[in-house]
Design brief:
Helix content is about 40%, strand content about 20%. The chain contains nine helices and twelve strands. It has about 280 residues and is α/β, with parallel strands linked by helices. The mean pLDDT is about 95. It has two domains: about 130 residues, Quinolinate phosphoribosyl transferase, N-terminal domain (Aldehyde Oxidoreductase, domain 3); about 110 residues, Alpha-Beta Barrel (TIM Barrel).
Length: about 280
């Protein structure tokens, strides 16, 4: 499974921020014009919540694009765990620019830190097992790479990035292709080098997927007993991914069955923004 790192994301970050500033600032911040253009200020951004930080590069890009005179001094790094009232970073520069950039910068940081915090919460729960927790494609439109990066800051892992980088053959695909073996055979012909993952809903379908040479088999809402049996039957011939019905109650028992992966849409979908605050001083 891929795991996004920050270095290749530079162009994506710049584009994310460019769109955010167009959306928020538009033709100009008319309220900031109340402040004399030459006035300088400092600001400190704190968290009001326990959190895992993610999104510092997006914050840097907001102020770099808005006004290169603004200096951003980080007190924490992506992946760090922070406590309420802890300073995250300091700003110095024209007061207008600090205030204009505040909301866009904090929007990125509060959302991406929320993803990282949720990911760390789940990762901690299964730390004593060998399972890898994966995200899904249930992301905010236009911010998938950002959210998938945040997942890695919280200690979880990326599933496929989109529809282009791996096969995930589900029930309707199987029906349209005429069966499990037919779908896998067709996938191998279309893109021989791409991983082929297929969804199964029973142990019988698992055996069909194994016989057809699937790389990864997604166990869709199988019982715990069937998952354990799937691990025994598979015996390392393919990777097994559990999916569906994953929550605080079911996560650890599923991890303990011995599956290789658990995919969780809630890592990016069901999040609550981290509460952040900016304190300005002139």
């Amino acid at each position: 499974m891929p795991n996004l790192r920050l270095a290749p994301l530079t162009a994506e970050i710049e584009a994310n921020v460019r769109r955010a500033l167009i959306e928020d600032v538009g033709s100009g911040d008319i309220t900031a014009q109340l402040i004399p253009a030459e006035r300088l200020a400092k600001a400190t951004i704190i968290t009001r919540d326990d959190a895992v930080i993610s999104g510092s590069a997006w914050v840097d890009s907001v102020f770099r694009q808005l006004d290169p005179r603004v200096a951003v001094h980080w007190q924490v790094a992506d992946g760090d765990r922070v406590k309420p009232n802890q300073p995250l970073f300091h700003l110095e520069g024209p007061a207008r620019s600090l205030l204009t950039g505040e909301r866009s910068a904090l929007n990125f940081l509060q959302m991406l830190s929320a993803v990282a915090t949720r990911a760390q919460y789940y990762a901690d729960k299964v730390a004593n097992t060998q399972v890898k927790l994966l995200d899904t494609r249930k992301t905010l439109p236009g911010l998938r790479l950002a959210q998938k990066y945040a997942v890695t800051c919280g200690g979880c892992h990326n599933h496929r990035i989109g529809l282009f980088d791996a096969f995930l053959i589900k029930e309707n695909h199987i029906a349209a292709c005429g069966g499990i073996a037919e779908a896998i055979t067709a996938a191998r012909k279309i893109a021989p080098g791409q991983p082929v993952e297929i969804e199964v809903e029973s142990l019988d379908e698992l055996n069909q997927a194994l016989a057809a040479g699937a790389d990864i088999i997604m166990l869709d809402e199988l019982s715990l007993d069937d998952m354990r049996e799937a691990v025994r039957i598979t015996a390392g011939k393919a990777k097994l991914e559990a999916s569906g019905g994953i929550n605080d109650t079911t996560l650890v028992p599923i991890a303990e069955t011995g599956v290789d992966y658990i995919s969780i849409g809630a890592l990016t979908k069901d999040i609550k923004a981290v509460d952040l605050s900016m304190r300005l001083s002139l």
